[in-house]
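User: Just a sanity check before I run the rest of the batch. Below are the structure tokens for the first item. I only need the designed sequence back.
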């Protein structure tokens, strides 16, 4: 009561929800990363998604079309993919780190992706190109190959492709 006026205070009864710090399933993520990098396996990609506040291995596979299907409009995710590059003279494997932020992802979750990306890049730390995508059309093998060519330096050969 102040000067004859009663002031009512409203006290929040619910605790404020603080965003949880993101964590990683580091052992599983490292194992999937090494699987993609290995010349001894057929695994060409791994996708990492959020299970609550933890980044986990969601899926692994061999076909780029399957890789593309792992990402949804309302999802945040990361991908790591091995792509055969080169020409008839020199073939080599190159790796891409992909950050996916679907079009329906909210502002706060979008903002968290920069810190979440830094966490996973501590494990997935060897790649030629880093890309960000948010619509299915950006998940195109030719766009990925072009990005790797731009980053990769000289391309030798006779101009005859040998896939």
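Assistant: Here's the designed sequence for the first item:
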């Amino acid at each position: 009561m102040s000067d004859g006026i009663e002031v009512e205070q409203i006290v929040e009864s619910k605790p404020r929800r603080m965003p949880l710090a993101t964590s990683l399933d580091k052992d599983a993520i490292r194992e999937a990363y090494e699987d993609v990098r290995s010349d001894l396996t057929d695994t060409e990609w791994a996708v990492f998604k959020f299970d609550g506040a933890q980044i986990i291995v969601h899926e692994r596979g061999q076909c780029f079309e399957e890789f593309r299907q792992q990402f949804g409009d309302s999802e945040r995710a990361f991908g790591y993919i091995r792509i055969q590059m080169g020409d008839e003279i020199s073939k080599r494997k190159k790796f891409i780190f992909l950050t996916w932020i679907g079009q329906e992802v909210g502002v706060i979750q979008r903002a968290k992706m920069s810190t979440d990306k830094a966490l996973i890049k501590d494990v997935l730390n060897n790649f030629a190109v880093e890309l960000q995508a948010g619509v299915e059309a950006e998940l195109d093998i030719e766009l990925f190959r072009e990005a790797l060519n731009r980053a990769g330096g000289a391309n030798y050969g006779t101009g005859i492709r040998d896939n």
